[in-house]
Prior knowledge:
The structure holds two protein chains of two kinds. By secondary structure, chain A is mainly alpha-helical. Chain A has helices spanning 2-25, 29-56, 61-95. The interface between A and B is medium-sized, with 38 and 32 residues.
Amino acid sequence: MSVAAAIxxxxxxxxxxxxxxxxxxxxDFYTRLHAAGKCDSLxxxxxxxxxALYVLQDFNLGNTLVGMKILLIAVFxxxxxxxxxxxLTKAALVAGVEPWKKGEKKS
Amino acid sequence: xKAKFATFVIMLVFWVVMSGMFDAFHxxxxxxxxxxxxxxxxxxxxPAPAQPWLRELIGMxxxxxxxxxxxxxxxxxxxxxxxxxxxxxxxxxHLFRFTSKLTRPIAKVAMAQSITLTPGTITVNIHEDQxxxxxxxxxxxxxxxxxxxxxxxxxxxxxx
Lengths: 107, 160
């Protein structure tokens, strides 16, 4: 059980790392949102599931409640993360942030 | 009445999970709060003209594993792009529009959330049945609406 938890958390950390590298490397606001908003949503889910598994390996009523709370966090992240990404993108478009075009220099 | 009772049960389960205390004092507090909430706001959870929420729930559960698999696949694609040394030649961000045949608001929201959850595409706007999507690559754009729309239509649309 703790091995499975470790695998989930490590995979989550890998995607967090990719997300951070993406934010640093991608050329403009919108493409950076792709990295920040998406890799993070999967990464956060993986870490949360990993933590839930780790808690549940010692199975009793109290830990089950904690595990259910952690999984509730996962559900809310799953709904909130794309909503926030969408709101940021739309706000930037309405405010007139220029998207990066292929062939331009990185801003 | 049925809606109020269902709201009460859901609220009480939520209370028990969140508090984790089962002594008479805390539990009766929870029961009182849940009764009040169920009495005043059950129409938020179950809107007045009855919705086929059970069918929606089953549909979402059937749809969810596929979405999860797509998210994982798409994450690997984006990870590959980001870590690629010639990243700037590989990506081609652009805004595109497509017309969806989904009619119910909840189906459109599910579609928009799914598009945003799968890396490489973000829903910018929905106007009537026009989706505006911001895509990271040409390939990510070409995959839409496609299979995702069909699956959501199957899960959430009423008539087929």
